[in-house]
Amino acid sequence: MTVNTSKTVFQVLTLSTKPKMIQFFYGDFQLQRTEEVTYLGIVLDSRLSWKKQASRVQGVGKTRNGLLKRLTDVKWYTTQDLLCTTYKSYIRPAVEYNSEPLVTASEAVRNKIETVQNNTLRIITGGAFSTPILAMQLQVNIEPLTFRSKMGALKLIERLMRHGDFWRNYNPVERRLKSHSTFLHVTKELYTDFDIPSSNRQSLLETGEFIRHLSPACYNLYLALPVNKISCINTELRRAALATIGERFPESHWLHVYTDGSDAGANHKAGAGVYSSYFSLSRAVGANCTNYNGEAAVVHMALTEVGKREGRNIAIFIDSQAAILAVSSVLPSRNGFVLDCRRMINSLINNGRNIAFQWVPSHCGVKGNKLADA
Fold first, then answer.
1. Is residue 257 packed enough to be buried (19+ CB in 10 Å), middle (13-18) or exposed (0-12)?
2. What is the tens place of the pLDDT at every residue in 158-199?
3. Residue 256, helix vs strand vs coil
4. Three-state DSSP class for residue 330
5. CB burial class (10 A; 0-12, 13-18, 19+) of residue 45?
6. Looking at 101-105, 187-191, 280-284, 334-338, which range is the least confident one?
7. Which of 205, 219, 266, 336 supports an S-S bond with 357, CB 3.0-4.6 Å?
């Protein structure tokens, strides 16, 4: 490999106003020093003030806003929704590129980028310069770029904290200049501002690991009778579900388990009712979680419970096809509940138990599913 020394420069990142007499050599060639460099489309200045980056973003946004303004002159079917979709898919991604580190920039620099979206809002809504920015944001349901930048910064620091032990255990030094905050200091303040808990942080799971050595569970996403959930009434769905349960999983040979996970408030709740031939489990996850996570969590809870019982095969009835496919697959996953479910299923199968997942329609009157929903 040959290095092109004419294109190779070095840069010193410092807040000091005193000149730094630093020289770098590559062989006998002295490298030139630069005050700013562009790396992967990001302009890094020596003081990391992000002024050059903000100017670049402002130029890109102005150019693309010009194309959006042309759409407003088209007389055929140019609606506000179309303009919003164009902005979100074509303009905002370019403006938000590398917006996470910009949370450390000054308010003046962030406002320079915010003006790009403000001009877009006036194009979409037709508002005058005297129209309040907040009113236009509420009308088209578009958040401020500063708010989205803070959310992106929190997501980035969470990925760093979960990726390894270095950032999780790293203690930033005391900052001497209060006017220049580091990325770690800013995100720490954002945790407090948004009241985000940072305890019990789980590590990110590697996605490249295939666990084909584990025995997957059997599953079925269809009922014994040909029915369509969208077009059939609840009575027909209930009859098809009961026929499927009785035909494929007779109570004399299978322990019936009904699960349900839903996004039902900020508090974590879990309950289980045990009956003669089956039991139902439900779990309500936090407001910041998804229904998919709730379904995976309650399957995890069900497998933990049935693992304490001996001798019987286990049929788990669930109304989420996505959760069934996840826990029955061997493909990589970052969901801790899903991976734990696969390992528990493998353990139960190795102990001579049969595990089967059966999709059942929700809210159609099946007793076990109804109790889990309740």
1. buried
2. 888 877 677 777 877 777 777 778 888 888 888 888 887 766
3. strand
4. coil
5. middle
6. 280-284
7. 219
Q: CB neighbours (10 Å) of residue 358?
A: 23
pLDDT at 257 over 50: yes
Per the CB < 8 A criterion, the answer to whether 332 and 212 are in contact is: no
| 3-class secondary structure, 83 | helix
Bridge partners (DSSP) listed for residue 284: 262, 269
What pLDDT does residue 265 have? 37
- Residue 257, phi then psi, degrees to nearest 5: -125, 125
The DSSP code sequence of 179-219 is TS--HHHHHHHHHHHTT---SSPPPPPPSS---TTSPPPEE
Separation in Å, CA 246 to CA 110, 223, 243, 252, 256: 63, 11, 5, 10, 11
Task: Kindly compute the dihedral angle of the four CA atoms of residues 193, 195, 198, 200, in this order, to the nearest 10 degrees.
Answer: 180
Q: Which amino acid is at 66?
A: G
Kindly compute the dihedral angle of the four CA atoms of residues 83, 88, 93, 99, in this order, to the nearest 10 degrees. Answer: 120
